[in-house]
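lol forgot to send this yesterday, sorry. struct tokens for the thing we talked abt
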């Protein structure tokens, strides 16, 4: 199947030649070049590997790297063999975007500085980029060493050391060599092998993720994408997700450097032959990942650091003044570049060399994971502004001057994984977030999510809201406050109405939580006393309708009449105070009566005093504690007719005080 070749095409290989990593397999890693244009990066790669990474005819004709180039290097190190994929990047300032794409996922950087030219503007900018991307392992290669004397090499080495001061590149070893004569190349290979064997092991047991840097079609095989595997592993037949479009696809075949594989691991370059997705919808900058891991978004929060010094003429003016919030920038992350508005959280400006929390409001959906690094360039792509790390890969439009927003993003960036999980759960509100997606949002392994979840639940910071969903207590408190404000606004504008119809209020809750949760949340709010039901209406506990004098007088007469009737009140329309009224007037008065705490609606259009129903219930409980009882026993105990007792018993059945079993009833035991 597919592999990366100099022509950007796939070589067909027989499956029986496939190889898979085993316990005795060599260490794998990715090496990326960096440095100024014409400093010999591609020539150096060719000298190391025998492969010319400039695969395009235009590149070979002009002697200028335009696109990413790739080569393979197998070395026998002192601590074991290493299998290395090399990514060669362009050095021209116009192709920094491509350089950043090539630097994504590299384990070892090779900063190439020509001995004749010395440190140049793109040398400096590439140092900044590698620093902001957190590339800690690497070598400085003084190329073209055959063209100068030792004093000049020493001077260039000193200048390169000064350029790296205060960065992750500061302690990199320097190796001088010449691609033309081969001098120093074996020393360079040895140094690369030593570094490769000293690298920490890549995560291969977790989620798979690969940023796509090339895509093409192969006749008879279909769509092929290439990239550096950032984490996890992939095998033929695996289901993956293409992001941001969230398109499902499968892996048909895998190649790496011309060899077919049954499994490709983090730290390898790989070409994946995909099914289920058309080549026309895939572009550089998209990603392949384990389904459900990454979430496309246009808002992400991050901590950034601006460059402290200008690195080229274009940057001199832009980097010498503070960066003002709400400006457009170019964000290079993974293999993608996108425009975004950078909003400073808790401030208006960022001074050169300073760090700040920001929100990036992207022009198009992107995907990211917690801790992922990126580069920021100015709107015109003239110079590098700085870089940063993702804190919240899925966010919402923040209020930058709200102190609470600053507090929340600080918690999301906490060194304590439990704090990060709690903040992510709070930010998720009523959305269901899987453990896999939570891992992407917090950097916490999926296996640890459940234990943090249980810890938060036991402390009362997570609450059940129905439907198997648990949300942060702060989320429920916020919804409770909003519901209270909503009711108060209604009461203020409609003081004569008894409240908001219950179904309308439940619908309002559902729109602000999640489908199917409205009734459950309403019940919780009612139990907590945040709202009260008054017949078919919902109101604030402290609210009483403002009655007109004539309505107040009528209600008093109604209450008195119902109280006097005790267990046998007449239907609403037959009350003496109501029967002379028109149907419309009687309905308005009944709506008010439904909200009165003194009355209980025990049947359609029938009301009883709260004192009377309490006395009736007491009698029932006395009978029920002795065992089951019949309607006739209640009738005889109270001296009432069957007509009166029947609807009152049915009311107690509905509110689950009693349960009918044949001709008898029993009390329902209440469990705490």
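and heres what i got for the seq, position by position
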């Amino acid at each position: 199947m597919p592999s990366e070749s100099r022509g950007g095409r796939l070589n067909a290989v027989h499956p029986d030649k496939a190889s898979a990593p085993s316990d005795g397999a060599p260490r794998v890693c990715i090496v990326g070049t960096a440095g100024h244009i014409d400093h010999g990066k591609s020539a150096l790669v060719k000298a190391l590997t025998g492969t010319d990474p400039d695969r395009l005819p235009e590149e070979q004709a002009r002697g200028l790297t335009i696109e990413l180039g790739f080569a393979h290097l197998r070395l026998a190190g002192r601590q074991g063999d290493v299998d290395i994929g090399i990514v060669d990047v362009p050095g021209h300032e116009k192709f920094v975007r491509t350089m950043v794409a090539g630097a994504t996922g590299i384990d070892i950087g090779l900063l190439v500085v020509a001995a004749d030219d010395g440190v140049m503007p793109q040398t400096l900018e590439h140092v900044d980029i590698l620093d902001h991307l957190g590339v800690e392992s690497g070598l400085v290669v003084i190329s073209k060493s055959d063209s100068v004397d030792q004093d000049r090499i020493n001077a260039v080495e000193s200048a390169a050391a000064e350029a790296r001061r205060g960065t992750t590149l500061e302690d990199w070893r320097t190796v001088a060599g010449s691609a033309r004569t081969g001098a120093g190349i074996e020393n360079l290979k040895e140094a690369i092998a030593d570094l490769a064997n000293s690298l920490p092991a890549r995560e291969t047991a977790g989620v798979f993720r690969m940023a796509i840097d090339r895509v093409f079609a192969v006749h008879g095989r279909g769509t092929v994408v290439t990239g550096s595997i950032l984490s996890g592993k992939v095998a033929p037949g695996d289901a993956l997700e293409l992001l941001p479009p969230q398109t499902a696809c499968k892996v048909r075949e895998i190649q790496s450097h011309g060899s077919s594989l049954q499994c490709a691991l983090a730290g390898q370059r790989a070409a994946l032959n995909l099914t289920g997705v058309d080549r026309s919808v895939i572009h550089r900058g998209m990603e392949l990942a384990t389904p459900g891991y990454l979430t496309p978004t246009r808002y992400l929060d991050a901590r950034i650091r601006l460059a402290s010094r200008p690195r080229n003429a274009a940057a001199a003016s832009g980097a010498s003044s503070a960066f003002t919030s709400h400006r457009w920038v170019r964000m290079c992350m993974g293999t993608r570049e996108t425009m975004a508005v950078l909003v400073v959280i808790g401030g208006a400006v960022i001074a050169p060399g300073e760090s700040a929390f920001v929100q990036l409001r992207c022009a198009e959906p992107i995907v990211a994971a917690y801790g992922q690094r990126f580069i920021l360039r100015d709107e015109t792509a003239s110079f590098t502004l700085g870089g940063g790390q993702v804190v919240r890969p899925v966010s919402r439009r923040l209020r930058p001057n709200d102190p609470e927003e600053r507090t929340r993003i600080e918690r999301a960036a906490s060194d304590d994984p439990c704090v990060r999980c709690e903040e992510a759960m709070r930010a998720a509100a009523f959305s269901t977030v899987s453990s896999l997606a939570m891992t992407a949002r917090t950097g916490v392994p999926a296996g640890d999510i459940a234990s943090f979840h249980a810890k938060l639940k036991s402390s009362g910071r997570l609450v059940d809201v129905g439907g198997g969903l648990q949300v942060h207590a702060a989320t429920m408190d916020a919804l409770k406050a909003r519901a209270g404000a909503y009711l108060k606004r209604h009461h203020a504008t409609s003081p004569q109405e008894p409240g908001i119809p219950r179904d309308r209020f439940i619908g309002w809750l559902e729109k602000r939580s999640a489908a199917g949760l409205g009734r459950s949340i309403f019940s919780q709010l009612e139990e907590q006393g945040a709202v009260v039901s008054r017949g078919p209406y919902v109101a604030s506990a402290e609210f009483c309708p403002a009655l007109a004098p004539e309505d107040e007088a009528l209600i008093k007469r109604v209450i008195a009449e119902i109280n006097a009737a005790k267990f046998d009140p007449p239907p609403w329309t037959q009350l003496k105070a109501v029967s002379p009224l028109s149907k419309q007037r009687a309905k308005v008065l009944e709506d008010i009566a439904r909200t009165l705490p003194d009355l209980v609606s025990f049947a359609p259009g029938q009301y009883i005093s709260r004192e009377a129903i309490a006395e009736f219930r007491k009698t029932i409980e006395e009978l029920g504690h002795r065992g089951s009882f019949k309607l006739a026993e209640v009738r005889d105990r109270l001296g009432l007719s069957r007509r009166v007792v029947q609807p009152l018993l049915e009311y107690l059945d509905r509110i689950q005080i009693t349960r009918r079993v044949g001709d008898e009833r029993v009390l329902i035991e209440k469990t705490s």
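The chain has 19 helices and 33 strands. anyway ping me if u want another try
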